[in-house]
Amino acid sequence: MGENIQGVNVDRYMVIPRTLVFLTRGNQVLLQKAAAHKRLWPGRYNGIGGHVERGEDVLNAAKREVVEETGLILDGLQYCGTIFVDRGSSPGVVVFVFRGESLEGEVVDSIEGELQWVNPANLTPLNTVEDLPELLPRVLELERGNVPFSAVYRYDEDDHLMMFFSDQRRS
Predict the structure, then answer these.
(1) Residue 64 pLDDT > 60, yes or no?
(2) Paired residues of 98 in beta bridges
(3) Which of 34, 48, 100, 163 is most deeply buried (CB count within 10 A of its CB)?
(4) Mean per-residue pLDDT for 150-171?
(5) Count of structural domains within the chain
(6) CA dist list (Å): 36 to 41, 49, 50, 107, 112
(7) Domain containing residue 73
(8) Is the pLDDT of residue 82 over 60?
(9) pLDDT over 80 (residue 5)
């Protein structure tokens, strides 16, 4: 289907697709401390992820980002939810959030940042991205068979993040 059939035009809101993956091993989650040279959140902890490249689907983009940023190869990922980041102008950002389990293998730091296995109960002393303390528990508590979450993030006039999550219901 071409642009006209899809209803694509510059007057509609456009988004940049990204992935975010949280890997677990036992009671720990793998977080990445973004390198000092990074444009987004230098020195702050977050999950693994990045942009979806042209021609990629979000699942394969998430797997690619895990390999590139950790050296780990995973069999599968669980889709947990979608975050629409409303920047107030186009383009916005849409983040597809996944969870996976990594039972073995050594992680390898990349140019993106340093990796660290962390107990989610001990996030407080870490310099995390602002949504991680609320987002991570939702991801880790989502059981297979539950409906993935849907969220909208936006910033208020003082540039404070506001997060709005939908209810999670069993399917």
Answers:
(1) yes
(2) 21, 79
(3) 48
(4) 83
(5) 1
(6) 9, 17, 16, 20, 9
(7) 10-161
(8) yes
(9) no
Q: What count of residues does the chain have? A: 171
131 located within any domain = yes
What's the CA angle centered on 129, arms 98 and 142, to 5 degrees?
30
Q: Distance of CA 34 to CAs 8, 31, 117, 127, 145, Å?
A: 35, 9, 14, 10, 32
Contacts 24+ apart (CB under 8 A), 1-7: none
pTM: 0.89
Is residue 171 in a domain?
no
- Could you give the count of Cα atoms lying within 13 Å of 80 in the half-sphere of its Cβ? 24
DSSP secondary structure, 37-69, as one string: T-SSSTT-EE-EEEEPPTT--HHHHHHHHHHHH
Q: Let me know if residue 149 belongs to a domain.
A: yes
The CATH number for 132's domain is 3.90.79.10
Q: What is the 3-state secondary structure (H, E, C) of 88-136?
A: CCCCEEEEEEEEEECCCCCCCCECCEEEEEECHHHCCCCCECCCHHHHH
